[in-house]
Structure formats: C-alpha cells, structure tokens
Design goal:
Layout (H helix, E strand, L loop, with lengths): L1 H28 L4 H5 L6 H10 L6 H13 L13 H36 L4 H15 L2 H15 L15 H34 L3 H8 L4 H12 L1 H18 L1 H6 L5 H10 L3 H29 L7
Helix pairs in contact: 1-14, 5-6, 5-8, 5-11, 5-14, 6-8, 7-8, 8-11, 9-10, 11-14, 13-14
C-alpha cells in the first residue's frame, strides 16, 4: 500500500506544474487589466503605471511566472491585488463553508443513493426499479440553479422552514448552521445521488451475474446476505471513483449554488477574483483546488487497495 501511495504522489508533480502554467497563461491572456479594474478611468495614467510597476505587472510574462514559481516553492502564494492580504488568508476564511457544504452534500447523496441503488438492482424491472430510475433521471437532468430556486420557494418562502440565504458556522451555532446549509446541500446532494444511484445499480447488476453469486445462492443464503456479504464490496470501485472525483468538484466548483444561497465559499471567491483580474488570488485558489482533487484521488486509490487487495500490487 505504501508503494502505491508513493507512486501516486510522484505522478502529481507534473500535473501541478501543468496546472500552474496553464492557469497563469490563461489568466494573463484574458482581456482586461487589473489596474483598470481597481481604479477609475479618471485616475492619472502615471499613478496607474507606478502601481503596475510596483506589482510587477509590467515585466514579461516569463519573468512574472518565474517569480511566482519561486515564491510558490517557498510556500508563498502571494498577496491579493484587491485587498493586499495573503492568498492563503483569503482562502482560509472561505474554505470552511465550502468543506462543510461538500461533506454535507456528500452525506446526503450517500444516504439516498445506496438504498435506492441497491433496491433497484435487487428488484430489477419492478415498480421500485422504475421509481429509482425516474429519480436518477430527474436528478441528472434538473439544473442545479433551478432546483435551488424551487427549494427556496417551497421550503423557504412558502413553508418558512429553512433560511433561503446566508451562512452560520455550525461549529459556533450547530442548529442554525445546519439549517443554513440544508438547502444548498440538498441542491448538490440530489444531483450527486442520482449519478451514484445509476452507477451503483449498474455495478451491482454486473456483479450479480458472477459465478460466486450463484454459489452463494446455491448454499441457501438470502438475497440480502448475498448482496451485503459478497456483491456490494466488489461493486464499490466505480462508486468510490465517482464520489472521490465529485468531492473535489463540490469543494471548488459549487459556484452557482454558493451564489444562489449567498454562501461565502471558495467557488464564489474565485469567480469574484476572476472578474477583478486578481491574478495571485485566482492562481492560488486554482492551485489549492487542484491539490484538493489530487488528495481526493489519492484517497480513492487507497480505498481501491482496501476494497480489492489485487490492486495494491499494480
């Protein structure tokens, strides 16, 4: 298992280098000047030029990239152009809401997807299976922003059960914090639950045709014991893959949901930074999101080895 982890870690270095280069190049090729965004048109051109020189934006791109990489290797992600604070501090303030939302949505998706997926596979081609397929199709086709608006209207405006916007830290006020995250977590969790349900059902149906399943049934084991004791673990690898990939997406990619529910998360931070042409902040956030994806993939690889010991030797 240790060799597997080391191999995966060694493979991340070129990925991170490619991410830094791609983000830096795309940002600087995008039309717009951060100095013009920061200052009004009436500001004297000399003042703008002095600020551009002070921030190092007047230097060639390869020099700026080399300087940024030099600071990055020392653990310095730079400072935001907008507020002058370290990028790490900007991200730290926004990371907790995104992490809480991601894990809450992941929990909801697992609690829904596993029972529905297992029941759909066991009761194939029955009304229960068709109901599960309808739910999965609904979750996949429904846009997040539309589902968010429907949830706000029904649970927030009509029934007044849950707040429709804002964020309360669950560590400080557990009840209010969970209530503030419930609607956005359901918005993200239902879409993920639909994908996991379809994947789990297909994986279980494939595993149920294996020879060891027929042997277990011939021994007189009930269908539930066959599924829980023999089939489910062998069907988990594609499900774990999806959950691992989606965890990174939920942390850094829940932009629309965070905007609709006014959550101060990382996704909203990076979009605001892009509009402001805040190069250091965008570069730092995207790099940290890439690290999050790499970490989630590493966890998935470790889980592969636990689920199927044959993978450890590959």
């Amino acid at each position: 298992m240790g060799r597997l982890v080391l191999r995966r870690l060694a493979a991340t270095a070129p990925v991170l280098l490619l991410v830094t280069f791609g983000v830096f190049l795309l940002l600087h090729l995008t039309p717009g000047d951060p100095i013009d965004v920061m200052m009004a048109e009436s500001v004297d051109a000399t003042v703008k030029e002095n600020l551009r020189r002070e921030l190092g934006l007047d230097r060639p791109l390869y020099v700026q990239y080399a300087a940024w990489m030099g600071r990055l290797l020392q653990g310095d992600l730079g400072r935001s152009i907008r507020n002058g604070e370290p990028v790490v501090e900007n991200v730290r303030r926004r990371l907790r809401p995104s992490l809480e939302l991601a894990f809450f949505a992941m929990t909801i998706s697992v609690l829904i997807a596993f029972p529905v997926g297992i029941l759909s596979a066991i009761r194939r081609n029955t009304a229960l299976d068709r109901a599960g397929a309808t739910f999965a199709l609904f979750g996949i086709c429904m846009p997040n922003f539309l589902l968010a608006l429907l949830l706000i209207f029904f649970f927030g405006v009509t029934l007044r059960w849950l707040p429709i916007s804002g964020y309360t830290d669950p560590l400080e006020e557990p009840w209010n914090g969970l209530r503030s995250l419930t609607l956005p977590a359901i918005t993200l969790g239902l879409a993920l639950a639909a994908v996991v349900t379809r994947t789990l059902r297909s994986s279980l149906l494939e595993a149920l045709t294996e020879d060891y399943v027929r042997t277990a049934r011939a021994k007189g084991l009930s269908e539930w014991r066959v599924v829980w004791g023999h089939v489910l673990r062998n069907a988990l690898i594609p499900v774990v893959t999806i959950l691992g990939l989606q965890l990174g997406t939920l942390i850094g990619g829940a932009v629309i949901t965070e905007y609709v529910f006014a959550l101060p998360g990382v996704g909203r931070l990076v979009v605001d930074a892009v509009f402001a042409r805040d190069y250091p902040l965008v570069q730092g956030v995207v790099l940290l999101i890439a690290l999050g994806f790499i970490a989630s993939n590493l966890v998935v690889d470790v889980l592969y080895g636990w689920i199927d010991p044959r993978i450890r030797s590959r």
